[in-house]
Structures are given as structure tokens and as C-alpha cells.
Amino acid sequence: MPSFTARLRPRLVLAGAVMLLSACAATEPPETEPASISSVILLKTSTHGDGVPLVYPTGTPLITSRITTFPPHSKTSVHRHLVPLYAYILEGELTIQPEGEPPRIFKKGDAFMETTGWHYGENKTDKPLKLLAVYAGEVGVPLAVRKDAPSPDGESTPKTGAY
Question: What is the pTM of this model?
């Protein structure tokens, strides 16, 4: 029969190994926490850019999201939007010129609701302008109407189109 020491030796070796592994594990750097998701509110409003209250569609809703690029020194025709339009400037600078009002200038990172009145948008810079436009529309309702074709009585006849 093995001596007491001989029987204890495997247990001591095992205990030592456990202690050594525990010490090694304790010295390893802790796992880093995964990055948490963050959210920043860009715009929170219940009105269009000109203060007119937002009204949701009464028919079948239709969300349209698009990125519009303006080359340097370009502008849209005079138009207005029949549905709420949220815009976010991705690159560049946009000047919105509402009829009879001072211009509104938006730069990269700006979020805004478009005006409901007649206006045009212009890139007055030497660099391209990119904006994200999100329309809260309705099936069968155009996103915008243009004011560019006079009728025989001299009044403007709106035409549907992007701008």
C-alpha cells in the first residue's frame, strides 16, 4: 500500500494546477463590453418648416425615401409639397427660398421639415449637395407640384413632378 505522502501527492499536484490556472485566468484582461447602441434625435416636430401643422394622409399611406444630389450651382423649379417632407443634409449646403420670405440655409448634419408653400431649393456652392428626403405620403398623391406653366388666364398651373 502506498504511503500517505504518495497518496496525497496527486491531490497536491491537482490542487496546485487548479490554483495556477485560476491565477492565470485572473491576470488575463477582462473581455471588453460590446459597444452599446446609441440614438440621437435629429428632429422632433409636429409642424412643417413654415409652422403649418402636420397632417397625416387619409388614404393609403406611402412612405418614400430618396437621396437627391444637386450639382454645384443648381436649383429646382418653384414647387410645393402636398405631403410632409423630412430632409437631412448629408453633404454640402442647401438654400431654400420660400416665396415672399427670407431664405433658409441648411448645412451638412441639419434636419428639417420642408415648407408647405411655394419655394425652390438651390445649391449655391462649388461642391455637390446630397440630401436624404423622406416623404410621409399617400398612394395617388404626388410628392410635389411645380409652378412653372402659366395658364391662358395668367395663373400658374401646377404640374406634378419631383421638383
Answer: 0.70
Q: Which amino acid is at 5?
A: T
> Smallest Cα–Cα separation from 63: which of 121, 7, 139?
139
**Secondary structure, 3-state, the chain:** CCCHHHHHHHHHHHHHHHHHHHHHHHHCCCCCCCCCCCCCCCCCCCECCCCCECCCCCCCEEEEEEEEEECCCEECCCEEECCCEEEEEEECEEEEEECCCCCEEEECCCEEECCCCCEEEEECCCCCEEEEEEEEEECCCCCEEEEEEECCCCCEEEEECCC
Tell me, what's the pLDDT at 28?
56
Strands 144-150 and 156-160: antiparallel
